[in-house]
Amino acid sequence: MAAKGAHITQNIEARPSIFEVVAADSLNATFYPALKRVANFLASIKPVAFGPLLRYYDEVFLVFNWAVQSYYLRYKGGSLSEVFYGLTRTSLRTNRFDQNGQRWSLALLVVAPYLYRKLEAKITQWKEDYENGRVISPEKVRLTQIVPYLKACFECVRLVHYVSYLAGAVPTHSPVLRALNLSLTYQQEEEQSWTFQELLSGRVEPAKLLSSALLRSLELSAFFLQFIEWWQNEANMGDLAKLPTPDAPPGDLNGEKYRGKCPLCLQRWEIATAVSVSGYVYCYRCIVAHLQKESKCPVTGYPASIGDLIRVFEGDDD
After folding, report:
1. Where are the extended beta strands (E) located within the chain?
2. Are 59 and 87 in contact (CB under 8 A)?
3. How far is CA 72 from CA 12, 13, 75, 212, in A?
4. Inter-residue contact 263 to 299 (CB < 8 Å)
5. pLDDT digits (tens, 9 = 90+) for 34-74
6. Tens digit of pLDDT for each residue in 259-303?
7. Residue 20, Cβ neighbours under 10 Å: how many?
8. Of residues 192, 194, 214, the one with CA closest to residue 203
């Protein structure tokens, strides 16, 4: 009994290492791109069924992330990534994680990244419009120039906090947590809510068993998402070339209908450009103008963007 008490006391007093807190931050940043790759894969095999999932991915992820993080903040005392590494949030003043801290943590964990991604998408669009000669307001031009510097300043502040936390000069590693007057500490050990003997004898409530299984599956999914992120890393893409090349898909009626001409202007291609998600070839200006209005292939309706365009070089090209 004394050994257990000493173990818990040691965990409460000890601060998490810089490796643990950075790993928790990295895991939290992995959820969005890793799940988006899953959505991209689903949309590529079932465009009609999963196309809306990819089109409204930011909103779907917002709802999903809100539900998961709100549960973990309320009942586990930290975000999913922090709980995965055995960490919990606590107030620097009261040594407890109250409802006010939970609400602000949820807003900065879920809502703030969503709004920033929307702002970043708008800034990218305004920058492309400005570079293509379109007229945009001076305020938007100024915003496209300022935001990258603000982001760089925030990264510098975060790096300073990392170094200061490593040196023991500050109580928390993150400027966001410091603004909320919170820090990370180790979770206290929780006694097992049920045993296998109780499970086999039928004395465990199904709701409790289901809840425990769902939580464990979420935490194991965090590791699976990290694996997806590693697998899709550009440094490992060369290994995929060793896989056998599948047969080309069969042609369709539209392929014969638009043979040798652009499906939009119905003329011979000028600067032939293919949409990688569908394979159809268009004039460069035709398909760029279309994708700036609608983010999908005009023929197949598959989700597409300007980044999915590939130049096609014909035999008479210089």
Report:
1. 87-91, 182-186, 272-275, 281-283, 309-311
2. no
3. 20, 23, 5, 13
4. yes
5. 788 888 888 888 888 888 888 899 999 999 999 989 988 99
6. 888 999 999 988 899 998 888 999 999 999 999 888 889 888 888
7. 17
8. 194
